[in-house]
Every structure is written in structure tokens, then in C-alpha cells.
């Protein structure tokens, strides 16, 4: 960190020499980096940090990150993301979620609890043929996940990973999403997140819709 003080953007993936199951190794790496962040020349701000939740968590960033962009497809990553959000206090969060059998909507319900810095959210929720949650469970889970936030704008996509080649289980969820009334879901979302000013939503096979709200 002190070696590259001019860095403003950072993209980090998992080191190939470590397995994610080597929990102690990852923890030791984070502890070492926590000590490094106390150096006088550590980064004060990054305009963007992106990549692996595991790798960014291990880095123990102790600076303001304007935009945090991460993928989420593993339950262990869901457990680490709240800490990463606390480390970086991002203004904008780009979150790309894939439900694949291992990761379930239940892993996300308390994801943004206590996170007040995120004001803009770009959310992509995708599911493949290994998904175990139903359409209603996914939509209710998204509402629960966002309910404790102070977000101002949301740009969200909820659909199959490859809608044109969807397997039967994916088609069943897509059918439910298609039948879901956009305005009703958005109304539920606004009720959960009173701070919302603007929403852009693309659910299932539907075209993207936009709503703007003005506080009283």
C-alpha cells in the first residue's frame, strides 16, 4: 500500500496458490494487512475497488472506496461482505449475485444491516439450473436484504443467467417473475427503503422500467 501511494483503482482476484478452504491462511493474511494499514502512507481513498470478495477482505482496506464492485456466488463470501463494506464504506455498490445451489437467498437477508454509506446500488441477481430457491423466495429475499439500507438509487436486474437457454427450474422462476406486477414489487421496495429516490428495474423477461420519487 505504501509502495504504491498513487493508486486510485484496484482490481484483485483470489491468489492461485491458496484454496478458499485454507481459512487460517486467509485470516493470517488479513491480520498482516491490518497492521500495514496503520502505516502513515496507507491509501486514504480509492475511486474503485473490484474483484473477489475473499481477496479484498484479506487486503483489510482501511480507506474510503467510492465504488465497490464484487461478485457473490458463495456462502462464505456472503459472510465476509458485511466486513468488507465496513472496511471500505462505499458510496456505490455494484453487486453481482448468482444463485447456484450453494448460495441461497437466505445468505443475503442481513447483508446490508448497519450499512449506511451505500447510497447507490447496482444489483444483478442471476440464477442457474442449480438454484434451490423459488421465485417468491428470491423476491422476498431481495426486499429483506434492502430493507435495512439507506439507499437513494437502485438499478436492479433479476433474471436467469442465460434466459434464452433456461432449464425447467429456471423457466419456472422466470414465469413467476413475469407474472409479478412490477408496480406492486416496487411499492413494497419503497415501503422497505423510504430513502429511495429512483429505481430502475428489470424483472425476468420484462423490459426495463424506471420510477422516480420525490420526498415530501
Automatic annotation (TrEMBL):
The chain crosses the membrane at residues 39-62. The keyword Transmembrane applies. Keywords: Membrane, Transmembrane, Transmembrane helix. This is F-box domain-containing protein. It comes from Ceriporiopsis subvermispora (strain B) (White-rot fungus).
Amino acid at each position: 500500500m505504501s509502495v504504491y501511494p498513487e493508486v486510485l483503482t484496484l482490481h484483485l482476484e483470489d491468489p492461485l496458490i491458496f484454496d478458499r478452504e485454507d481459512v487460517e491462511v486467509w485470516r493470517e493474511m488479513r491480520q498482516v494487512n491490518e497492521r500495514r494499514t496503520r502505516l502513515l502512507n496507507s491509501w486514504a481513498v480509492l475511486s474503485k475497488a473490484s474483484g473477489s470478495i475473499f481477496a479484498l477482505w484479506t487486503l483489510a482496506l482501511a480507506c474510503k472506496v467510492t465504488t465497490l464492485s464484487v461478485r457473490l456466488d458463495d456462502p462464505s463470501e456472503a459472510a465476509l461482505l458485511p466486513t468488507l463494506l465496513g472496511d471500505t464504506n462505499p458510496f456505490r455498490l455494484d453487486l453481482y449475485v448468482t444463485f447456484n445451489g450453494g448460495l441461497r437467498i437466505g445468505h443475503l437477508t442481513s447483508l446490508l444491516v448497519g450499512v449506511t454509506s451505500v447510497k447507490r446500488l447496482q444489483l444483478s441477481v442471476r440464477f442457474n439450473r442449480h438454484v434451490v430457491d423459488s421465485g417468491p423466495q428470491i423476491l422476498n429475499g431481495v426486499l429483506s436484504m434492502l430493507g435495512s439500507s439507506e439507499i437513494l438509487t437502485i438499478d436492479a436486474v433479476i433474471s436467469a443467467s442465460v434466459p434464452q437457454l433456461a432449464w425447467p427450474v429456471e423457466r419456472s422462476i422466470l414465469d413467476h417473475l413475469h407474472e409479478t406486477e412490477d408496480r406492486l414489487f416496487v411499492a413494497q421496495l419503497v415501503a422497505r427503503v423510504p430513502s429511495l429516490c429512483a429505481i430502475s428495474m428489470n424483472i425476468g423477461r420484462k423490459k426495463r422500467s424506471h420510477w422516480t420519487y420525490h420526498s415530501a
